Please model this.
Amino acid sequence: MSLKIAVEGSNPPTIALAGRLDTHTAPELDKTLDGVLAKTGITRLVFEVSQLEYLSSAGIRCFIRARKAIDRQSATSGAEGAGYREGDTDGRHLQQRCRVGRLSG
Model:
């Protein structure tokens, strides 16, 4: 199964994901995130994951990468961000800042 990605340009941008987010499809999400995050002034990003059937560690890495990029942008622009902490490699800070809904399946 493949990954379907839909980007809504709302504020904050919403990325809806359906299918499988795994080692094979994560690069597709990374490419989409690069385009979304290239826009300046993004301090929040919403992932709609209710239609994800599978999420691997490669997919989780995409979420963490996006969070860190947003926090860096916020720090650079002086905007209040989620407080990216250098060296937070275990994801505890990410867990504290993000609510993760239940995946169907």
